[in-house]
Design brief:
Chain lengths: ~350, ~270
């Protein structure tokens, strides 16, 4: 588990590409810190600035404003080859003219490590990624998954302080991806190196990370553990991007200090966690799996549509006022087969399920 | 493509073109082995003209010309390749700089300028700065017109190499120079070799510019052949031409295999 010393700190980083009329803001006042020994994930939709931020950390891109600190030392003026940071590139960028072993030893040779030390380290790294038998092959003779492991071994070999990974699993098929998630996490724990992992896949982020930074359009939205991000999203974007949710524009009825009593639809009032002083209206999020579908007539509704998902079914139900609500129920709970489109039903929300959001 | 063969007149047309292209070459090659001194009548197979070229009374002259050609082609191709490699790196990896499109035009302009214009201009240039004409003037002129020929395959190759490779090298603690030496240059090598070979052949073959800028008494193979032909076509010219043709074929074949090897590696 991560201890709380700060390894890498991003301080109010701005990045603008181009000038004048062509200027595009890729990063806007992004600040966060990554703890020592942490598996930290940058998560966000395509084009939100993840790669740009990673390239700034690695030194391939300069900041327009702000700073990057590594263990309290400014990195901004150091060229890439002077930073104790290594990268696993999105397309791996293995050197095609060198063998697997030569690829893995490249960084050690550049650092001037001895022959014996280098050979031992290369052997260790290849064992770590299960490629001992492939040492003499050229990258073009490997499968995509194997190339991905070589890229990982090559970046880990010099024992960097921080390892950057730019969507390293995106080119692999689903089964291999799921397998590599577990393996990457294991390697991070074994080596004790701080990982900064970039992905646009929220499932990947939730399943691997100690903490996640959610980004959108060049701005940081929220930083927190997988549970925090999922259970207590700060705003509409995070709630919507991570998993699935029902968003309601609710009226605030009363404020009891720790939460609000809100009306999310006519006749449907409930307590929501969070606070928004002086607001008459607010956005409220309720996850589909925290709503129960039944027939006890608490909040009457009509089943609109069923979406079968294997382990679960999504029930799209319509409230009396016309609001559509998605309910998720496991297929072994006795709900299976009880409802068909057009049936009358009712829903109830689990206590603590409703969250107040900042828009 | 296979349908092409069905067009009426395809076969005669093809044969006609092939004859036009290769018959003169074939005649030169065949008659270089002619026993008789006639250039039209076949007198049986013999290597007499080759013996004449290599050991006859004019052998010394041809040998000197051949050495000049080789030395100039070697040096000019080497210099042009180095310059073209630097130019390609600046154009394709140097980011954006003022005068980039102008530089691109300047590098490739020699391909468009009529050779005779370049020849006259070069001659005037050397005279005006008082440069003694000789081997050195030929070399300088050859380096200049070889640069675009070396540049084209090198730039084409570099264009196909993603910037990620150098970045990965620098990410792994290689300085800019080592990233170039250990990663980028090996990847560029097929293009560099192809550029060198092309420049070599172009230099070996050049007549017009060489004829203008060479000093009195200094000959390269093409100018020596031209000089000899002026006094009447003798079969030993055919023997020399066949030798040169073989050298060219050798180099083109080599560059083909280098390219194929390079493509296999990636
Ligand atoms: N060199 C550049 N010049 C101009 N704009 C750029 C440059 N690099 C990135 N951008 C812009 O910056 C924004 C962020 O790009 P970035 O590559 O960081 O996105 P990303 O989050 O990595 O997306 P993806 O998930 O698709 O890889 C995009 O709008 C992109 O168009
Ligand atoms: Mg990206």
């Amino acid at each position: 588990m991560a201890n709380l010393a700060t390894a890498l700190e991003i301080v109010a980083v701005d990045k603008v590409f181009g000038t004048g009329a062509n200027a595009a803001i890729a990063l806007n006042k992004v600040s966060f810190s990554v703890h020592d020994n942490e598996f930290f994930t940058l998560l966000g939709p395509s084009g939100c600035g993840k790669t740009t931020l990673l390239r700034i950390m690695a030194g391939f891109e300069t900041v327009t404003d702000g700073d990057v600190m590594l263990y309290g030392k400014r990195l901004s003026d150091l060229p890439p080859d002077k930073r104790p940071i290594n990268t696993v590139f999105q397309n791996y960028a293995l050197f095609p003219h060198l063998s697997v072993a030569e690829n893995v030893s490249f960084g050690l040779q550049m650092l001037g490590r001895g022959k014996a030390e280098t050979a031992k380290r290369v052997a260790d790294m290849l064992r770590l990624v299960h490629l001992e038998a492939m040492a003499d092959r050229k990258p073009s003779q490997l499968s995509g998954g194997q190339q991905q492991r070589v890229a990982l071994a090559r970046a880990l070999a010099p024992a960097p302080k921080v390892l950057l990974l730019d969507e390293p699993l995106s080119a692999l098929d689903l089964k291999l991806r799921q397998h590599m998630r577990i393996e990457l996490k294991q390697i991070q724990q074994e080596t004790g190196i701080t990982f900064i992992f970039v992905t646009h896949d929220q499932e990947e982020a939730l399943s691997m990370s100690d903490r996640i930074a959610v980004m959108s359009a060049g701005q940081l939205q929220q930083v927190g553990s997988a549970e925090e991000i999922y259970e207590a999203p700060k705003n509409r974007f995070v709630a919507d991007f991570i998993g699935e949710t029902n968003l309601f524009d609710a009226d605030v009825i009363s404020n009891n200090g720790s939460g609000l009593r809100v009306r999310i639809a006519p006749g449907m009032e409930l307590e929501a966690d969070g606070n928004r002083p002086d607001k008459r209206e607010t956005c409220v999020s309720i996850r589909p799996e925290r709503i129960v579908i039944g027939t006890d007539e608490t909040v009457p509704c009509v089943v609109d549509k069923l979406v079968y998902l294997g382990t679960d079914t999504h029930y799209h139900v319509r409230l009396g006022c016309g609001t559509l609500v998605v309910v998720r129920a496991q297929n072994d709970q006795g709900t299976k087969g009880r409802f068909a489109p057009g049936d009358a039903a009712s829903i109830s929300v689990a206590p603590g399920a409703a969250k107040v959001l900042v828009d | 493509m296979s349908n092409l063969k069905r067009y009426p007149g395809f076969l005669p047309m093809t044969i006609f073109c092939l004859i036009l292209l290769y018959a003169p070459l074939l005649i030169v090659m065949v008659y270089s082995f002619n026993e008789s001194a006639s250039i039209t009548r076949w007198g049986g197979f013999s290597l007499v003209w080759y013996r004449d070229v290599f050991f006859g009374i004019e052998a010394a002259k041809y040998k000197a010309a051949a050495w000049n050609s080789l030395i100039i082609a070697m040096s000019a191709a080497s210099c042009a390749t180095v310059i073209a490699t630097c130019a390609a790196l600046a154009m394709l990896r140097g980011g954006s700089f003022t005068g980039k499109s102008a530089s691109f035009a300047l590098i490739n302009l020699p391909l468009m300028v009529p050779e005779i214009v370049t020849a006259v201009a070069t001659l005037i240039f050397f005279s005006s700065i008082g440069f003694q004409r000789g081997l050195l003037t030929i070399l300088v002129a050859h380096i200049v017109f070889c640069i675009p020929f070396a540049y084209l395959p090198i730039a084409a190759r570099l264009q196909g190499i993603e910037a990620h490779y150098e970045q990965a090298a620098m990410d792994l603690y290689a300085s800019r120079w080592r990233a170039f030496r250990l990663v980028l240059m090996p990847l560029m090598m097929p293009g560099i070799i192809a550029g060198f070979l092309l420049a070599f052949i172009i230099s070996l073959d050049d007549f017009i510019i060489t004829n203008f800028v060479k000093g009195a008494g200094i000959e390269t193979l093409p100018t020596a052949i031209f000089g000899a032909v002026k006094q009447g076509i003798k079969p030993d010219i055919m023997a020399i031409s066949t030798c040169m043709l073989m050298v060219s074929v050798l180099f083109v074949t080599a560059s083909y295999f280098v390219n194929r090897l390079g493509n296999q590696n990636n």
